[in-house]
Amino acid sequence: MLSYRHSFHAGNHADVLKHVVQSLIIESFKVKEKPFLYLDTHSGAGRYQLSGAHAERTGEYQEGIARIWQRDDIPEALSAYIEVVKALNPHGSLRYYPGSPLIARRLLREHDELNLSELHSSDYPLLRTEFSRDKRARVLREDGFQQLKSKLPPRSRRGFVLIDPSYELKSDYQNVVKGIQEGYKRFATGTYALWYPVVLRQQIKRLVKDLEATGIRNILQIELGVRPDSDQRGMTASGMIVINPPWKLAQQMKAVLPWLHQVLVPEGTGHVSVKWVVPE
């Protein structure tokens, strides 16, 4: 059932958007000294070898992180994210890309916690090995959606939840809404960031309507498109839906998205968008 491997897509334009948003949220949490929990429901392998067979077969990173990481005009809002990429590639060639767990590990402080879940039989051992010496981290081979029930609220009463399923099952579109409802019931003050792919626009419109119907407020939608919407096969855009976003996030993304779009999509197709689905 679990056939999706993120190693084919690591470092693409969708990863760049997701990890810019993730790093900005983490940095905002660090403004306060009090610890917080980072909960990642679909963690993947942790790191990805861009010279490996999977990444080389698609080459998606060439139109993603490869276009950005060594530029000399990188906006300040991207600095934490780019520093993680550079730390993983200290010799100046782009060999590895960090998944969301490694970005969190690098940016979190000693007194913060990580809770990571992965079900894939190949990716889970890689993730467990990656974090075997990190005392802050719990790595579980469990359904990530169940973590939204069992691990919330955190002891610190501060938490950031990243929800990033593969969407290889159509039911994932419903499961993310149910999962957010379950988490929000237990931890209404947490920040929840949901990544989504735009393959069929109608699926995303339905997802947004379903989230609106939950009655949850303070929902921000951020989107980066690289091609016009299409009913043909393939992802044309991706986005992040953030519940209880840090107060600066909308402003930060409005400032940085045009630059990202210009660099990632030099031909100028696609779009950028930052809008409130439900205001506070």
TrEMBL record:
Tell me which Pfam families the record gives. RsmJ (PF04378)
Site feature (Interaction with substrate rRNA) residues:
Y4
The record ties this protein, via InterPro entries, to:
DNA_methylase_N6_adenine_CS (IPR002052), RlmJ (IPR007473), SAM-dependent_MTases_sf (IPR029063)
Q: Which Gene3D superfamilies does the entry mention?
A: Vaccinia Virus protein VP39 (3.40.50.150)
Q: What is its EC number?
A: 2.1.1.266
Any single GO molecular-function term of the entry would be: RNA binding
* HAMAP family for this protein: 23SrRNA_methyltr_J
Question: What family does the Swiss-Prot or TrEMBL record give for this protein?
Answer: Belongs to the RlmJ family.
Function in brief:
Specifically methylates the adenine in position 2030 of 23S rRNA.
Question: What is the protein name for this chain?
Answer: Ribosomal RNA large subunit methyltransferase J
Q: Which organism is it from?
A: Xenorhabdus poinarii G6
Q: What gene name does this entry carry?
A: rlmJ
